[in-house]
Model the fold of this input.
Amino acid sequence: MYDITDLKPGTAIQLDGEPYLVISSQFGRKSQSKANMQCKLKNIKTGAVVARNFQGSEKIEPADVSYRKVQYLYSDDATCTFMDLQTYDQFPLPRETLEEVLPYLVEGGEVDALLFGETPIGIQLKPTVTLKVIETMPGVKGDTATGGNKPAKLESGLTVNVPLFINEGDVIKVNTESGQYMSRAE
Done:
């Protein structure tokens, strides 16, 4: 069981039989009252975000979540299909639950599947991904890293602003939280 002080961002907890991920938490205490922890929680199954206030002596149940390496295979109008890299079992996830991660998925790419019990319920991205530039204006001799930006379409379909010296075929790192260019990939 967790105490309220264990509720740090990234912690998985269970409320009313549903798994939640702590997005943010703030500890507080008002004059003579008990300590409390104000949290923003994201339902791992549905993606809904809720605010919840936990009191000082409350015990919170940890969620039975784990991660497993999977490979993104393909998607259609309703689902995205992945393959477990340990068992080679294939499983679909609804497209609407993956809206935030879809721009960073490339067929054949490896990601972490989030499991509640043994059931896959979502995809966890790394903080950065490397993607190939498939379409952008050509770089011009003399363009510098500080000279400005131009749009570039990446192999996943995502469009990001990149420095002028980036060309088609270059592989770049993109921050998955902000969706911004970070650097050229080594």
User: Anything to note?
Assistant: The CA atoms of residues 128 and 175 lie 5 Å apart.
